[in-house]
Amino acid sequence: MVQIQASVEIDASVDKIWSIVSDLDSEPKFWKGTKEVRNIAKDGNTITREVTIAFKDSKCMQTVILYPKEKIQIQFTKGIIEGTKTLTLAQIGNKTRLDVLWDMKLTGMMGMFTGMIKKHIQSGSEQALESIRQEAQR
């Protein structure tokens, strides 16, 4: 498994940032590696969905658990990626820190490309957090 971390401080409230990151349908707007999201089922704060990722237009199944105004945990349950992506919000004075932590690997024969893909995911995560920051500070 490979861990990828990125973080940003945003001059906005947890409430404002939560309203952006918890709108799961708008994820492709910020996360360029996510091309399409299709929600399949919702049970309380748990969502089952299929996402199409930019890597070879691969489809992945995910279970998303929302912990309101605290974190979003995404478990890749089927597809080319195995592992988790977790977004965490923390109030720091009058700012909010938004962190993302990936703990993942590519499955099967694609596993040999995990290291190469790591750079793309790191860059994409940093760009996504910056886009979220800009949206929140409008």
Helix/strand layout:
Blueprint (H helix, E strand, L loop, with lengths): L1 E9 L3 H8 L5 H4 L3 E10 L2 E8 L5 E9 L3 E8 L2 E12 L2 E12 L7 H23 L2
Antiparallel strand pairs: 1-7, 2-3, 3-4, 4-5, 5-6, 6-7
Helix pairs in contact: 1-3
Describe the protein's architecture and organization.
This protein is an alpha+beta fold and 138 residues long. The chain has a single domain, classed as START domain (Alpha-D-Glucose-1,6-Bisphosphate, Chain A, domain 4, 2-Layer Sandwich), CATH 3.30.530.20. Helix content is 25%, strand content 49%. The protein has 3 helices and 7 strands. A 7-stranded antiparallel sheet has the order 1-7-6-5-4-3-2. The radius of gyration is 14 Å and the shape is globular. It starts with a strand and ends with a helix. The mean pLDDT is 95.
CATH homology group: START domain
**Share of β-strand residues:** over 45%
Quaternary status: single chain
Total count of helical runs of at least 4 residues = 3
The first-level CATH class name: Alpha Beta
Evaluate the radius of gyration: 14 Å
Brief write-up:
With 138 residues, this protein is of the alpha+beta class. It has 3 helices and 7 strands.
